[in-house]
């Protein structure tokens, strides 16, 4: 019998996890509604969940990656051939290079964050293994 309205630790963990999932989903919906950029960092800020949580939750991760990919494709306009007559060839090429660099930088940051999350998960799992197999 439970007293004081406390939940068993397994149930409490499940409730906490479910609340985090709901916050993440609400954050994603808000970003969509407000036409904001959707990526792992923006969802973390909008939902108040950790990056590790998003990467570890397969459904949320896939949804964010899908939405991010859709936004990326929608924001890509077909390249226009610069006209030598209007004197904007250099400007057009410089702008295209700037966009490419920005996209590249964002993708590198995303991969670095994913790598950091993976390293964190490895460390966490190592601790779990160590706690189950104490050294003699």
Could you explain how this protein is built, in words?
With 136 residues, this protein is an all-alpha fold. It folds into two domains: 10-75; 88-136. Helices cover 74% and strands 0% of the residues. It contains five helices and no strands. α1 packs across α2 (40-47).
* Largest sheet properties: none
Straight-line distance between termini = 38 Å
Structural class: mainly alpha
- How many individual β-strands? 0
What sort of overall outline do the alpha carbons produce when their principal axes are compared? flat
Q: What percent of residues are in strands?
A: under 5%
- Poorly predicted tracts of residues: 1-5
Short note summarizing the structure:
It contains 5 helices and no strands. The protein has 136 residues and is mainly alpha-helical.
Describe the secondary-structure layout.
Layout: H1 9-33, H2 40-47, H3 51-56, H4 58-75, H5 89-132
Helix pairs in contact: 1-2
Descriptive tags:
0% strand, 5 helices, 136 residues, disordered N terminus, 2 domains, mainly alpha, 74% helix
């Amino acid at each position: 019998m439970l007293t004081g309205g406390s939940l068993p630790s397994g149930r409490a963990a499940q409730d906490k996890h479910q609340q985090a999932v709901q916050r993440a989903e609400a954050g994603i919906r808000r970003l969509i509604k407000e036409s904001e950029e959707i990526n792992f960092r923006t969802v973390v800020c909008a939902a108040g969940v950790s990056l590790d949580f998003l990467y570890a939750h397969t459904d949320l991760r896939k949804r964010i990656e899908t939405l991010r990919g859709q936004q990326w494709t929608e924001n890509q306009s077909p390249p226009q051939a610069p006209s030598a007559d209007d004197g904007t060839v250099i400007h057009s090429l410089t702008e295209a290079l700037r966009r490419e660099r920005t996209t590249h930088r964002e993708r590198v940051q995303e991969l670095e964050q994913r790598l950091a999350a993976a390293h964190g998960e490895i460390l966490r799992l190592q601790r779990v293994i160590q706690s189950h197999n104490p050294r003699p």
